[in-house]
Design goal:
Layout lengths: L1 E6 L4 E2 L11 E8 L5 E3 L3 E2 L2 E2 L1 E3 L4 E7 H9 L2 E4 L7 E9 L5 E10 L4 E3 L20 E5 L11 E3 L3 E2 L26 E3 L4 E5 L1 H4 L5 E8 L3 E7 L5 E7 L15 E6 L6 E7 L7 E10 L2
Parallel strand pairs: 1-11
Antiparallel strand pairs: 2-9, 3-8, 3-10, 4-9, 5-6, 7-8, 10-11, 12-21, 13-23, 14-17, 15-16, 16-23, 17-22, 18-21, 18-23, 19-20, 19-22
């Protein structure tokens, strides 16, 4: 028997299956215990072509063992979209007229991995967000241009918004044009060694599945971490050597950080390294939303 784990919406390679008689011919039959959970891929190697019956969940191939092993080495289980159910694959190998050799592969389904985003390109407007083409049930973009944090269901544990005359470094487009300067816009300013953004499920209806924010100034090394409703870490991004140009309003250094988690994101934490606490650091374009 063999135990494997797969992630939701992610194909799993089943290359551990091997027929050990190299010279003869054989028939391999694989049967999914739940044909609704996914499918097995088919292909051709030499004179052998595998087949799969989606209704019964049965995969079969007959022919030279060398060709069978090539097929098996590239065989994948493709889970049904948004499915992470547990199932078994019954294996049956018959060499010549011999007695079939049987076994079981147990597949444990895991939720889809949290996706993290930290592009190495400037974020100059919402058009540079990885979320710009998504269709949301609910979505908010806080750009702080009214001097307030007032989009619903969100709090930030430290920092303030500053008016533009305090040498702000806003996202470029927020002042009405993309011209290499964000000094006439507004952003969120912090002097602390970390900053946590928390989302309120009771206000939003559900936790956001998509969360992002933009680093706009004074940080060369930044850690971005997301957490679920139980406070468990969903993962971390560490970026070092980020551009940080200490000139008022320069926007070529602005970078997006974000995460997508179908189970919901309860909070994010940003931790800068090697920054000047007397100057502080800036963030902008807090964005969050969910799909039904």
């Amino acid at each position: 028997s063999l135990h494997l784990a797969y992630h939701e919406d992610t194909p799993l390679n089943l290359s551990d299956i091997l027929v050990t008689d190299p010279d003869g011919e054989a028939t391999v039959k694989l049967t999914l215990s739940d044909s609704n959970a996914g499918q097995l891929t088919t292909a051709t190697s030499g004179n052998v072509t595998s087949t799969y019956d989606a209704a019964t969940g049965v995969w079969t191939a007959t022919g030279a063992v060398s060709d069978l092993n090539t097929l098996l080495a590239n065989l994948e289980f493709n889970p049904t979209a948004n499915s992470s159910s547990n199932l078994e694959i019954a294996t049956e190998v018959t060499v010549g007229t011999g007695t079939p050799l049987t076994g079981t592969i147990t597949l444990t389904g895991l939720p889809e991995k949290t996706q993290f985003f930290a592009p190495d390109t400037p974020y100059l407007s919402f058009e540079d967000s990885p979320f710009k083409d998504e269709t949301f049930t609910s979505f908010y973009l806080e750009d702080f241009e009214d001097g307030l944090l007032n989009t619903p269901g969100v709090t930030i544990d430290n920092g303030i918004t500053h008016p533009s005359e305090h040498k702000m470094d806003s996202v470029d487009a927020d002042d009405g044009s993309i011209d290499g300067s964000g000094s006439n816009g507004r952003s969120w300013w912090s002097w602390a060694g970390s900053l946590t953004v928390t989302f309120d499920e009771s206000v939003l209806g559900k936790l956001p599945t998509h969360v992002g924010i933009v680093k706009t100034d004074s940080v060369e090394d930044l850690q971005f971490e997301a957490f679920d409703a139980n406070g468990n870490s969903l993962g971390v991004i560490n970026k070092s050597g980020l551009p940080s140009i200490l000139e008022q309003g320069v926007t070529s250094e602005d970078r997006f950080f974000g995460a997508v988690e179908k189970g919901g994101i309860a909070s994010i934490k940003l931790t800068p390294k090697n920054f000047n606490s007397s100057i502080g650091w800036e963030l902008d374009h807090l964005q969050y939303g969910f799909k039904s």
